Amino acid sequence: MKKPKKPAANESGSDYEVGYGKPPRHTRFQPGRSGNPRGRPKGTNNLKTDLMEELDEKILVREGEQSRRVSKQRAVVKTLVARTLKGDARAAGLLITLMMRLSDTGEGAPEVAEPLHDDEHEILQEFEDRVRRDEASAATDPSEGDDSPEVTS
Hints:
By secondary structure, the protein is mostly helical. The chain has a domain of 56 residues. It contains four helices and two strands, in the order αββααα. It has a two-stranded antiparallel sheet with strand order 1-2. Helix 2 packs across helix 3. The longest helix is centred in the C-terminal third of the chain and has 23 residues. The protein is flat, with a radius of gyration of 32 Å. 0% of the residues are buried.
């Protein structure tokens, strides 16, 4: 089966060429018209809302001889802790990671910086001087350094 021949640019009366990233003009979105005119239907939840609602639902959980109603979120946490106590290394790693992210212990935070030595102060001072010189030269000669056109309003 042969493909239909595409009209040459000059046959259709314009210089426009159809191709990758260049759809035919008649199939483009018209100015002022949305590609999704009706939008998202009302009452449609996003993933976070659905997840939170699902985790808030209560289920029946047996602990020993007793049955209790707990949220699904609580049941997941209880399962994770129970698997950790049984020796599951993956569950233990996940539990520790979760604990570190949620607790405000400060562990993992950067240590307090030591005072700078004289040679480090000198390096910082030289860097600051160089930055100031560059800023001053850019302010006096705007044609250097910045290749982008200057926008004025």
